[in-house]
Amino acid sequence: MSSRFSLICxxxxxxxxxxxxxxxxxxxxxxxxxxxxxxSESVIAAYVGNGMSNLIRQSLGEHHETLxxxxxxxxxxxxxxxxxxxxxxYPGVREAMTKLTEKKVIVTNKPLHFTEKILKxxxxxxxxxxxxxx
Length: 134
What we know:
- The model has no long low-confidence stretch (mean pLDDT 94).
- The radius of gyration is 16 Å and the shape is elongated.
- The longest helix is centred in the middle third of the chain and has 15 residues, at 68-82.
- The chain has helices spanning 20-33, 41-47, 52-60, 68-82, 93-99, 112-121; strands spanning 7-10, 17-18, 88-89, 103-107, 130-132.
- The protein contains six helices and five strands; from the N terminus they run E-E-H-H-H-H-E-H-E-H-E.
- With 134 residues, it is of the alpha/beta class.
- It has a three-stranded parallel sheet with strand order 1-4-5, with helices on one face.
């Protein structure tokens, strides 16, 4: 049976992987380094989805915008070390990717470096024909 589709595009965070804890832990380590109050995982998770710059800005809050460049460096360094501490595939993702015969592409605003690192760590990179990151 042939498919009606030749290509399927997937988002990453919150679609294929649960990365909330690793992201929120890195944000909170960044906030601690900057001597700012930490935020709950649910608050930080609400900031995810509009790119890393937005995530950092919202986590800092409008009164600490001057710390943005420093905060971004701290977060990137920390997340690079911890982006796969507890990040997991959602149930059924691996199985679904093996069953789909169409070309599969990830389209995410997560920086490509982190995206590739996570996909390789979760041993699912080869399931995708292309990965496009922020």
